[in-house]
Amino acid sequence: MSANGGGRAGGLPALLTRMPRPRLTALGGGLLAVVVMLCAGLFASLLLDDSMTFYGVCFVVLCAACALGVRVAEALTAPVAVPIAFTFGLIPITGEDGVGAWFVALASTLAVNAGWLYGGTLVAVAIVLVRRGLYAAGRRRSRSAARTR
């Protein structure tokens, strides 16, 4: 039996103690989001006939993962990076001939799928606010505990 309670069957606290802490920087989280959304857009374009449902679900999951994976000190960058990644991921989906036609298709796709964009961004904002609140509460507790010693 391990010291962290790993011997308990199905213990959630044991699972949480084994999970690694978030290690992504703001730049790393943004780059990861762009790469993942480009891959999702390419996959949706090539294999799923430009399925925006698949793309949107991937985006919402990515928003949650990005908000949870970025370091707490830089977590406020996640809600900024994910909409940029959403736009970059649309490049394979809006494959049009000519720059003007491509920009029109991109703007149309963004307008039609604004629900996915706003929903995923709100998921990231909610997670980041909770994480920052828990972080601030923990710091306050440690400061007050240091003062009482």
TrEMBL record:
<protein>
    <recommendedName>
        <fullName>DUF6542 domain-containing protein</fullName>
    </recommendedName>
</protein>
<feature type="transmembrane region" description="Helical">
    <location>
        <begin position="24"/>
        <end position="46"/>
    </location>
</feature>
<dbReference type="InterPro" id="IPR046672">
    <property type="entry name" value="DUF6542"/>
</dbReference>
<feature type="transmembrane region" description="Helical">
    <location>
        <begin position="77"/>
        <end position="95"/>
    </location>
</feature>
<feature type="transmembrane region" description="Helical">
    <location>
        <begin position="101"/>
        <end position="130"/>
    </location>
</feature>
<feature type="transmembrane region" description="Helical">
    <location>
        <begin position="52"/>
        <end position="70"/>
    </location>
</feature>
<keyword id="KW-0472">Membrane</keyword>
<feature type="domain" description="DUF6542">
    <location>
        <begin position="23"/>
        <end position="132"/>
    </location>
</feature>
<keyword id="KW-0812">Transmembrane</keyword>
<dbReference type="Pfam" id="PF20177">
    <property type="entry name" value="DUF6542"/>
</dbReference>
<keyword id="KW-1133">Transmembrane helix</keyword>
